[in-house]
Structure formats: C-alpha cells, structure tokens
Specification:
The complex is a heterotrimer of chains A (115), B (186) and C (161).
Chain A lengths: L1 H18 L3 H22 L16 H7 L3 H32 L4 H6 L3
Helix pairs in contact in A: 1-2, 2-4
Chain B lengths: L3 H19 L3 H21 L3 H22 L13 H23 L8 H4 L4 H13 L4 H9 L1 H22 L4 H9 L1
Helix pairs in contact in B: 1-2, 2-3, 6-7, 7-8
Chain C lengths: L6 H23 L8 H19 L1 H7 L2 H26 L23 H24 L8 H9 L5
Helix pairs in contact in C: 1-2, 2-3, 2-5, 4-5
C-alpha cells in the first residue's frame, strides 16, 4: 500500500513534466519525481522496529545487528540528494538565460521564436 | 493499520504535490514544493535515517532559494491557453499503463518492513554492519560506507557536482564585447 | 540587491553567522560519530555564507568573498580528497585505502577512524564553495555596460558576446 502511494507521487511528477507549458513548472515537477524516487529507495530498506545504522557506545552489538535498518540505500540516496541540487541549479540557470533571450517562460512561444 | 503515520505523511505529500503542479501562481507552487520537501525530511526521520533528514532539509532550503531567485522580479503573468488534445490522450494512456503495471508488480513485492537483511543470507550490507566498527573505527555506518567501503562513488559524486556547477557558470556567464575586442587588438 | 537589507537584518545576521558556521563545522567534524556527513555540513556552511551575501548586499560581498576565492576554495576541497586518495597508493598500494591507524581505544571520539575525517573535510569544502559560487553568480547577472553602444544593443535585444 505504501509503495503504491510512492508510485502515485512519482506519477504526479511525470504528469507535470509532460503536460505543463511553463518551464519553471517542469523543473518543479522534476524535483517532485526525484523526491518520490529517493523515498522509494529508503522504503525498501526499512526494517520493522529498526534502529538507525549508527553504533552507540552503550548498546549491545547483537541487538544492533538484529535491528538496524539497511544502511546501503541510505548511502546511495545521500549522494542522489546532493546531485539533484546541482542539477536543479543548472536547470534554473538555463531558465534564467531563456527568459533573458526570449522574454517568456512559455515553451510553446520559445519554440516559435527561433534564433 | 500499523505504520499509520507514514501513510498520513505520504498522503499529505501527494496533496502538496498536486497543489504545486496545478496552481496558477508560480510563487505558490514553489512554496508547495518546499512543503513537500520538508515532509520528506520528516518521513526520513520516521524511517530511521537521520543523516538523510539533515541533508534533505538543508538541500530543500537551498532549492527554494535558487527557485525563487529565478522567478522573482520576472514577468509573472500566468500562462494559459488551450491544451493539445493528442498530448493529453498520450499522457493519460501512459499514466494508466504505468499505474496498472506498477500495482501488479507490487503484489509480488515483499511486505513493507522486512528488509533484505532478514531474507537473504549474504546480503551486501551484512558485512558492512558487522565489520564496520572494527575495520575502520568509526561508529556511523553510513559514513563508513560512503567514505571507506564505497569511496569511489563519493569521488564520482563530487566530480558530478563540480561539473554541474561549472556548467551553470558557463551558461550564466557573459563577457562584454568591448573587452573581447580589446584583448584581440593587443 | 544594491545595498543589502535593513539594519535590523544586518545586525541579527552579524550576531548569528558564527553560530551557523560553527554548526556546519560540527556536523562535518563529528561525521563519523553522530549522524551527519560532509555533505550536510558543506551545505550548512554554504547557507551561512549565502546569508551573509544576502544581508550585506552584492557589492560588499563580491569584494570580500568574490568569485575567484570561491573557485579556488572548491578546487582546494577537491584536491584534499584526491591527495588523500593518492596517498593511499603511496603508502600501501591501493587507491583510496584507509591508511591511518585506528586504535580500539579511540573509538567514538573525534580523532579516530583513519582517513574518514580528512575526506569529510574535503567534501564539505568543495560542496560549500560550489554552492556559494552558484548563488553569487546567479545574483550578479547584470552585464557591466561599457558604453552607449552596448546599451543600445541591450535595448534592441541583441546578445552581447
């Protein structure tokens, strides 16, 4: 059930990318898709009654081994979050340049006014 | 139902995403996507990932600042107009197809909460958890995976971030023509 | 963003910038003991510098921490990471090997875990410098108009190459 809700979030982002005309709305929908994908990866690694993957000094090691959540998706999603920030900066830079060149954010107008 | 709080937060995120996409005012949609990002950080806390919650929260703040920089003091007239019929049909077909396929796949998924560490004997993360403290001496297993066991991925990641920032500089930079012709004449 | 913000905002940020910077450095330095990483610490340090940039105005900030300083700091951050990686080859023949000794008595403290804190600092420096660079470039986009000819070109909508 929770995986289906996550898929709905990704599909909302996909709908926004495909149908919207305003280029900033397309960038925002891409960000929503990225949130959905990162969330899906973390949902896979969850364990019932889990503890976070960091050893504390006063904790028994066997309890930690039996209850910690999966740390591998967390490491990969951390990389993905920071890269998505760099990607968003690049996309917004392109939007700014497009606005200064063509005077509008509308992609149908930009397609018409070539060069 | 157990994990009720996770479902509630996810439904709030879906409502926020719908508001972000459908509203006509650009500033409102940017603030809504900020709300979706903050709810995602809370969700990461409930899923026992505090590293990710800290990173997602500050990255979300910077995303909001950069997005607002792009749209403020620009011409914010709402863009409207007729939609193309063919594009709408294609989109609707695509989304229905992906939803049906996805729901079929999720029936075969293992239940939420039984991670791969329980089901598979030699899961890749088992050696990381068992040997992390002895081999490296650091208590945070996510940091040891990022910077010791899989440090190549971190090297690739800082390369990608560096290249994205260089690309942004190249797109946004302008040089005055007078300066360029003076350099050519010298 | 000519002169920065009002006096209230400037005073508050002058009082707070040390604490935000310290928080970012703390999350980076204790990345191997408590939750947190070089990435989160770097983004927080970038937020502190962006806050100073927004409060003091474009002109003063570009004079103090301009584009050149940010570019050099990001290269320094990348070099810290790469030199640690190549030092692994020099010392034990494996790229990116954790070559500093880790004693069992020094766990859960600051100076433990081998080369991990050094790599954390390198990652934080490169992330912070890159994000500050992007924001300062986005905020100072105006072309420096040299003479009337270029002003005419901007008014006609042509590009200045």
């Amino acid at each position: 059930m929770i995986y289906s809700l996550c898929l709905v979030l990704i599909l909302i982002g996909l709908y926004g990318v495909v149908t919207k005309k305003n280029i900033v709305k397309i960038v925002i929908s891409l960000a929503i898709m990225e949130y959905g994908v990162n969330l899906f990866l973390i949902l896979i690694g969850y364990r019932n009654n889990g503890v976070h993957p960091g050893i504390e000094e006063s904790e028994s090691f066997t309890h930690f081994l039996a209850h910690s959540v999966d740390p591998l998706p967390q490491a990969l999603v951390l990389t993905s979050i920071v890269i998505s920030l760099g990607m968003l900066a690049l996309m917004v830079g392109m939007c700014i340049r497009l606005y200064e060149r063509y005077g509008t954010f509308d992609i149908t107008e930009i397609r018409r006014l070539r060069g | 139902m157990e994990h009720a709080i996770l479902h509630i937060i996810l439904i709030m995120m879906i409502i926020g995403a719908l508001i972000a996409i459908e509203t006509k005012n650009l500033l409102s949609s940017i603030i809504s996507v900020g709300a979706v990002g903050f709810l995602l950080a809370i969700m990461f806390l409930f899923l026992r990932a505090p590293d990710l919650a800290i990173t997602q929260m500050v990255v979300e703040i910077l995303c909001l600042v950069i997005l607002i920089r792009a749209t403020i003091s620009r011409d914010l007239t709402a863009i409207s107009g007729g939609r193309e019929f063919f594009g709408l049909i294609t989109t609707a077909t695509l989304i229905i197809l992906i939803t049906v396929l996805g729901l079929k796949i999720f029936e075969d998924f293992p239940a939420f909460g039984s991670s791969v560490l329980d089901r598979v004997i030699d899961a890749p993360a088992k050696t990381y958890i068992a040997d992390g403290l002895e081999k490296t001496g650091s208590a945070n297993i996510v940091t040891t995976i990022l910077l010791d066991f899989r440090a190549y991925d971190t090297l690739g990641e800082i390369t990608v971030l560096f290249c994205a920032i260089l690309g942004t500089l190249a797109v946004l930079r302008r040089k005055a023509r007078k300066q360029a012709t003076e350099e050519d004449n010298e | 963003m000519e002169e920065g913000m009002s006096l209230v905002v400037k005073t508050v940020i002058r009082l707070l910038k040390g604490f935000i910077l310290l928080f970012g450095v703390y999350i980076t330095a204790y990345g191997h003991v408590t939750p947190g990483d070089g990435f989160a610490g770097g983004v927080i340090i970038a937020c502190a510098f962006i806050l100073i940039f927004l409060a003091e105005g474009k002109r003063d900030s570009m004079k103090t921490f301009g584009e050149t300083a940010a570019r050099e700091m990001s290269c320094i951050g990348g070099l810290i990471f790469l030199l640690t990686a190549f030092a692994g080859i020099g010392i034990s023949g494996i790229f990116l090997k954790n070559f500093l000794p880790t004693k069992a008595a020094a766990r859960f403290t600051l100076f433990s875990a081998g080369t991990i804190p050094i790599c954390n600092i390198g990652v934080a420096v490169i992330v912070a410098a890159s994000l500050y660079l992007v924001f300062s470039i986005m905020s100072s986009l105006h072309v420096i108009v040299k003479d009337d000819e270029e002003r005419e070109m901007i008014n006609r909508g042509e590009e200045i190459e």
